[in-house]
Amino acid sequence: MKTSTKVSAILCAVLALALVVPVAAQTAYNRDEVIQVMRTNQQTLGQVRAALNRGDFYAAAEGFWKFAEGQNRIMKFTPPKGNKAEWDRVLGKFVDTALRGVGAAGERDAPKALKILEELQTLNKEGHSLFR
Fold it and tell me: Torsion over CA of 45, 48, 49 and 50, rounded to 10 degrees?
């Protein structure tokens, strides 16, 4: 094989890898998993509110943790609508806010935790407007 042919073959291989590796590194969007997380969030919202209203801070903390875990789990996906940077921003903020909710429940501060629950609902609406 000529040197120029070898160089061309190597260059083609490098370019092919450069195109394939980023695509392989992305996680395919799993619609079913995202829907499951959203439905769980909807159910958990009422459970957390009820737990806070009855002073069950342990159950409230569990619910806030469930919010954080679910959103963190789907953050790896690239949304079919909207852009990945916005997806990461909204879901990251949701996780951070849910973790603040765990803290508020640990402090036994129902008003603070209810305010955090409202923040989560606002983030949920923002996410739906961008990605649904």
Answer: 120
